[in-house]
Amino acid sequence: MKLTIKKTTIKPIRKKLAILELQKQGFVKTQISGLFVTNKGDCYNHAINRKLLINKAKITIKGKAYNVAKIILETFCKIPIRNGQIRFKNGNNKDYSLQNLEYATTETHHAPKETDIIKVIRLYFEVPKKMSRQNLIYKFYLHEIAIKRGFVHSHTGKYFDLFLQWLNPFSLTQNQSKQEISVKNGYSITNGINAINEYLNLLTNDCLRDFENGFLHIKDFAPKQPTKTQKLKELQKTINANGLNIKIPLRKSSAKEKLNQYLKQINHLKNN
Fold it and tell me: Which residues, including other chains, have CB under 8 Å from residue 2's CB and lie 6 or more apart?
């Protein structure tokens, strides 16, 4: 009697990609557990270690379907997933690149939080600890960041031109508000502010994403400049170290002190 040995085919174990390797390939973590996407529309499930196929504009994870375009907009533009149709700008509904996607209905864009903008600026510059939107140099920092990142060339269109005009610290409109620039260029205040805030959010979110992925790091605050009194104290130390008998007043004399000094001088003259 012959024994039949049944051969078992061992499937090769698929090597799991490290998250760092996924990031090098342009994948970014999404709000969905284990899911990473690129701004070109590629989807990768890290939990099962494989790319996902898009079927009828959706991918399926654990039996649940997700709209790919909305995930990409949420991941790269921080636009929360909501109801509404997606418009493919070039007409190709198979092109899931970020630049080709937008919601068909207009969404109201609010300005980024001041803390987020200051954080973005600190990714590139050392700034004073009391930095705020009221600082005159605030727009200069943002403008320089937009240039460094190539953001000033990343979009086109009249609304993006409006944003660049508002952002430019060297233009004739540098001190004008979003409302004033919108009206000056023939836009309603609502549409103009909405457009400027949209691109300001894109720039801010791009920078914060690079920070979260470890590509950028927050710089220290700029060293505090010494006060006039501190400078005078340092000068007095130098004078003392050189054996000079000179006393530098650290502050202006008050009216009362000046009067007392005057009276002392008068008494001295009388006594002499």
Answer: none
Q: Which stretch of DSSP H or E encloses residue 144?
A: helix 138-148
Please, which residues have CB within 8 angstroms of residue 169's CB and are 6 or more apart in sequence? 137, 139, 140, 143
Give CA–CA dist 32/75, Å, rounded.
10
The model's pTM = 0.52
Contact 219, 125 (CB under 8 A): yes
Rounded distance between C-alpha atoms, residue 230 and residue 190, angstroms: 49
For the chain, report the end-to-end CA distance as a whole number of angstroms. Answer: 141
DSSP state of 87: E
Give the ranges where 93-227 is alpha helix by DSSP (H). Answer: 114-122, 138-148, 158-167, 178-184, 189-212
* HSE-up (13 A, CA, CB side) for residue 241: 6
Nearest to 251 by CA among 265, 269, 224, 233: 233
**What tens-digit pLDDT sequence spans the chain (272 residues)?**
555 555 555 555 556 678 889 999 999 999 999 999 999 999 999 989 999 999 999 999 999 999 999 999 999 987 888 888 898 989 999 999 999 998 887 678 889 999 999 999 999 999 888 888 877 788 899 999 999 999 999 998 889 999 999 999 887 666 788 999 999 988 888 889 999 999 999 999 999 999 999 999 999 988 877 777 777 787 778 778 877 777 777 666 677 777 777 677 667 666 65
- Cα→Cα distances 60→68, 105, 134, 158, Å: 10, 26, 47, 38
Element (H, E) at 158: helix 158-167
Please state, in angstroms and rounded to a whole number, the distance separating the CA atoms of residues 122 and 220: 8
